Automatic annotation (TrEMBL):
Name assigned to this protein: Uncharacterized protein
Length: 31
């Protein structure tokens, strides 16, 4: 139960990081 929660939390953090990098990349491409 706890392991699954940690996995979900880790995936959420990874997803957030990926979104940030994608956002920065798109901004760099636009500018």
């Amino acid at each position: 139960m706890l392991v699954g929660y940690l996995q979900l939390l880790g995936m959420g953090v990874l997803h957030r990081k990926m979104q940030k990098t994608l956002f920065y990349h798109s901004v760099n491409v636009l500018h």
